[in-house]
């Protein structure tokens, strides 16, 4: 589930940024986009009822810098 949510959020935010630039709006900083992606992933996972809290999922969350407390339970 973590991989699916993170992939969807990343694709969406890249599409949104590209679309904004195509329509003449100023682009956002990379760090801001990454922070938005991380926040959306954490929000989505906090609401997940069936999140498997495996070592693989934890390692992926650590690699992505997800500081949300989804693995504290």
Q: Alpha-carbon distance between the termini? A: 17 Å
The assembly state of the depicted protein chains is single chain
Count of DSSP strands = 0
- What kind of sheet is the major sheet? none
Q: Which percent bin holds the helix content? A: 55-70%
Kindly report the average pLDDT value.
82
Q: What's the helix-strand series?
A: HHH
Count of discrete structural domains: 1
β-strand amount: under 5%
Number of helices: 3
Overall geometry: elongated
Output the structural class: mainly alpha
Rounded Rg: 14 Å
Poorly predicted segments: none
SSE inventory with pairings:
Elements: H1 2-22, H2 30-46, H3 55-63
Description:
64% of the residues lie in helices and 0% in strands. With 73 residues, it is mostly helical. The chain has one domain. The protein starts with a helix and ends in a 10-residue tail after the last helix. The relative contact order is 0.18.
Q: Any key phrases for this structure?
A:
73 residues; single chain; mainly alpha
Concise overview:
The chain has 73 residues and is an all-alpha fold. Helix 1 (2-22) packs antiparallel against helix 2 (30-46).
């Amino acid at each position: 589930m973590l991989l699916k949510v993170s992939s969807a959020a990343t694709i969406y935010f890249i599409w949104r940024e590209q679309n904004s630039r195509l329509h003449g709006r100023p682009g956002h900083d990379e760090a801001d986009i990454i922070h938005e992606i991380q926040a959306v992933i954490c929000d989505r996972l906090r609401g997940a009822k069936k999140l498997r809290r495996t070592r693989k999922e934890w390692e992926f969350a650590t690699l992505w810098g997800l500081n949300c407390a989804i693995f504290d339970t």
